[in-house]
Specification:
Blueprint (H helix, E strand, L loop, with lengths): L2 H20 L47 E10 L9 E5 L25 E5 L5 E7 L10 E8 L2 E10 L9 H4 L4 H4 L3 E2 L2 E2 L8 E4 L2 E3 L19 H4 L2
Parallel strand pairs: 1-9, 1-10, 6-7
Antiparallel strand pairs: 1-4, 2-3, 2-5, 5-6, 8-9
Length: about 240
């Protein structure tokens, strides 16, 4: 299978579905609940990779893909009023199939899969949509499987959270997940990783909308006023 063509086709299908849902009358009749904030953690990349695109499986022009269950992650960034957050930078970062981050302080770094990008970014479109090709997250000592996600707008980090695998056995024991004490809010950071029909290699898809406590500027806002906001560890300096 041509993975690049499959990814593009899947992306377009997901975007078409999102566009249809956004046009549904009365969809945002009630204010949406914001996705709980979750910590950035200690392993945001202290040195970004040269390749920071939204395909975490292939580094630059490499012919060798990263190990792991291929996952297509898509969704929308929305305000509590259901407004699309366009031209926002969405960042994700996660451990590789061996449980290692691309951070020089990670004790598991020597076992890192050098074919895994570990970090990616995507600029949301006019309907707030984002898309990444990555791997299904795996557990490592002390944490249930998760993907970190941060949203930046106009050069400022405005939301940071994490996506967990719905139904995973380790969720209930995860300290950070347990800090979210309301079961209804817990559901907002959980998503199903579903097999893609027709994929001969067992690829997965997950759709996760992130609702943030931020109101878009008016329609006359310049398209992009800034890039990626400072990560938490740099803000503390």
């Amino acid at each position: 299978m041509d993975h690049s063509n499959f990814s593009r086709r899947f992306f377009m299908q997901q975007m078409a579905f999102a566009a249809a849902s956004l046009s549904t009358p009365g969809l945002w009749a009630e204010e949406l609940t914001t996705t709980p904030r979750m910590t950035e953690g200690p392993f945001y990349p202290d040195k970004l990779p040269l390749d920071t695109d939204n395909d975490l499986l292939i580094l630059n022009d490499s012919l060798t893909a990263a190990a792991g269950e291929v996952t297509h992650l898509s969704g929308r960034i929305l305000s509590a009023a259901g407004e699309s957050i366009r031209n926002a930078f969405v960042e994700i970062w996660q451990v590789d199939h061996n449980g290692a981050y691309i951070n020089s302080n990670d004790p598991r770094l020597e076992n890192r899969d050098t074919n895994f990008q570990g970090y990616g970014r995507f600029l949301t479109d006019v309907q707030g949509r984002y898309y990444f090709r990555t791997i299904k997250p795996v557990p490592y000592p002390g944490r249930t499987p998760h993907i970190h996600l941060a949203v930046s707008k106009n050069g400022q980090r405005i939301w940071t959270t994490q996506l967990l695998v719905n139904g995973h056995d380790q969720n209930a024991q995860d300290g950070l997940f347990r800090r979210i004490t309301d079961p209804k809010l817990q559901k907002l950071v959980l998503a199903d990783f579903k097999p893609i029909k027709g994929s001969k290699t067992g690829e997965l898809a997950v759709n996760w909308d992130v609702v943030i406590g931020w109101t878009p500027a008016d329609e006359h806002e310049p398209p992009i006023q800034g890039g990626i906001g400072k990560p938490e560890w740099r803000q503390r300096r």
